Amino acid sequence: MRINVSQQLKSSIGLIRNYEVSDIVSIAGGDSMVEGKVSLVRTDRGILAKATLHTEVEVTCSRCLNFFSSPLALNIEEEYFPIADVVSGDSLSLPEEPACFTIDEHHVLDLTEAIRQYALLAVPMKPLCREDCAGLCPTCGHNLNQGPCDCLPQEADPRWSKLSKLVTEQKGTE
Predict the structure, then answer these.
(1) Helix (H, G, I), strand (E, B) or coil at 141
(2) Contact 104, 91 (CB under 8 A)
(3) Rounded Cα–Cα distance for residues 109 and 119 (Å)
(4) What is the pLDDT of residues 25-82, one digit of tens each?
């Protein structure tokens, strides 16, 4: 997702340009269509990119291990710094911020890396294909979303027998 900002870098501070974007970005090993709105604001040091984007990434359910598409909403706000002066072409010093985003020597602002980073942060830590996912049988590994398996029910730990009796008695009194 590349945008030429040479004219905006020549403009006065505060100039805003809005863009509708739609492009494929590589996120977490797969290509995803990213769509949304980007607003670029000229600052005293560079360009502030504000974006509201939507995409879907292919993830693995943490219970049943099936792949599914997970929608992501990305709200990006990053400042990009030019590495070359737009008028003279001389090299510019970058701020001492670690891993800051830059505008290349051709005055092109590339949102791809910011989108990738924000998307990786937005992916759920334990994604679920659906809220009531039954997961896998701990004995045979059968996907319980596709129905019960043929395993015999596991016997309860004898240390829980008194508690099981209480539960049974409680159900009998209701």
Answers:
(1) coil
(2) no
(3) 18
(4) 998 778 999 999 999 999 998 999 999 999 999 999 999 999 999 999 999 999 999 9
